[in-house]
Amino acid sequence: MQKILISLALWSTTLQVLAEPAALLIYQVWEQGSEPYVSRVIVSADHLRLDEGVDGDGYTLFDRRQETLYNVSLAERSVRVMQPPFSVPEPSDSLILQEEVELDEQAPAVGGIQPKNVRLLANGELCSELVVLQGAMQKTVEALAEFKLALARIQAQALDATPLSARSACDLAANVYAADRSLQFGLPMHERSAGRSQSLVDFDADYDADSALFSLPESFERQPMSFPGAI
């Protein structure tokens, strides 16, 4: 019996070592021309992981301390490494951003928070509509903003090579100059833009994540990635 108790204690200790405090968000995503899919976001103090759940082919890992992004392809056994440049240039005066925020008094409160409806516009064009929870899972929201701003710095580097068709006022706002705008109003529950929508279907502010989820396969080839040529 003593050996069994010792084994159980060691097993419990191992589980504690492997578990890492995190937050979990699961979105159902619809994109025009594609089948709906799951987008899973796991956030710890040091990392943000974005994947399509357990059946996904790969994942994106954002090292929050080093501000480095890694795209991992399981099929290709490769890790593409992206180091964002330092900053995003200031937008020209011709890009005018507007937001309309309204408390949704008819919607049920979630965790004691009344949802808000948000409309994001650029140069008078409606870019996206959101339902948000202001103040909910704030540290997770901040991590998502860090991730989006890092991507924006990469996109800004490739802006000159971006096709004009992908440089509308909404594209520039969402992908370069105001990438974190949708997160400034709270945790998105629903988000809809042209050709895309997503809805929060599950969340856990106290999620015990396997620490292996925030690691990179050692045997995979590392490929420093040039900045993409399109948004």
Global geometry: globular
Structural class: alpha+beta
Please tally the helical runs, counting DSSP H or I stretches of 4 or more residues.
Answer: 3
Largest sheet: 12 strands, mixed
Number of DSSP-assigned strands: 12
Helix content: 10-25%
Q: Round the Cα radius of gyration to an integer and report it.
A: 20 Å
What is the average of the pLDDT values?
88
What is the terminal-to-terminal distance?
62 Å
Sheet-strand content, in percent, reads 35-45%
The residue ranges in which pLDDT falls below 50 over 5 or more consecutive positions are 1-16
Strand order of the largest sheet: 7-8-9-10-11-1-2-3-4-5-6-12
Q: What's the SSE pattern?
A: HEEEEEEEEEHHEEE
Give the helix/strand layout.
Elements (H helix, E strand, L loop, with lengths): L1 H17 E13 L5 E7 L3 E5 L6 E6 L4 E6 L4 E5 L14 E7 L12 E7 L2 E9 L4 H20 L11 H9 L9 E7 L2 E15 L10 E4 L7
Parallel strand pairs: 6-12
Antiparallel strand pairs: 1-2, 1-11, 2-3, 3-4, 4-5, 5-6, 7-8, 8-9, 9-10, 10-11
Describe, in short, the structure shown:
By secondary structure, this protein is of the alpha+beta class. Helix content is 20%, strand content 39%.
Give a description of the structure.
With 231 residues, this protein is α+β, with helices and mostly antiparallel strands. Helix content is 20%, strand content 39%. The chain has a twelve-stranded mixed beta sheet. Strand 2 and strand 3 form a beta hairpin. Helix 2 packs across helix 3. The longest helix is centred in the middle third of the chain and has 20 residues. The chain starts with a helix and ends in a 7-residue tail after the last strand. The N terminus is likely disordered.
